[in-house]
Amino acid sequence: MRLMTLLLALGLLWPVAPPPPEILRGWQPPAGPYAPGHRGVDLAAPPDTPVLAPTAGTVTFAGPVGGRGVLTLTLPATGTPPLRTTFSPVTPLVRAGTRVRPGTLLARVAPNSHCPENCLHWGLLRGTTYLNPLLLTRRPPSRLLPPADRGERGEGDISDGGLGTRGPGAAAGRTPGVSFGER
Fold first, then answer.
1. Contact between residue 122 and residue 43 where contact means Cβ atoms under 8 Å apart
2. What three-state secondary structure class fits 134?
3. What local confidence, expressed as pLDDT, does residue 2 receive?
């Protein structure tokens, strides 16, 4: 709960310019420290795309790792250990130790990413624990919509918690009557 409150207070931006980029591959947390998974998100970004600081921070690493350029931005006042966000493959334009403001040009996307299309891999860590970097982005507000057709269940049916999960759309894995923003 404290992490989510902190992230909402930070009001972070996307690392590649608006509109928000297409997400080519989402975050898939590993089952353990050495298990397979996707420890970040891949954002569609052609080579030479500017990579911007999503929030204020200090560049704590800018250089090659395994033959690819990587940049790490450590976020102040985010707890102990602090949150760190990473970007690869990039050509860093700032040095380690540089303090930056939101929107500061940090790097440019380098060619030859691990994606079928070129992309920016964006990661988020606290210590050695990987987190979903999409938690850092602004989201449209949630909207509650009127429940789906109640006529088929009757008004008194609360066997599904009143959420209408047995109504239209339930087979598709959606909860009718509830919108969590754009799909």
1. yes
2. helix
3. 53
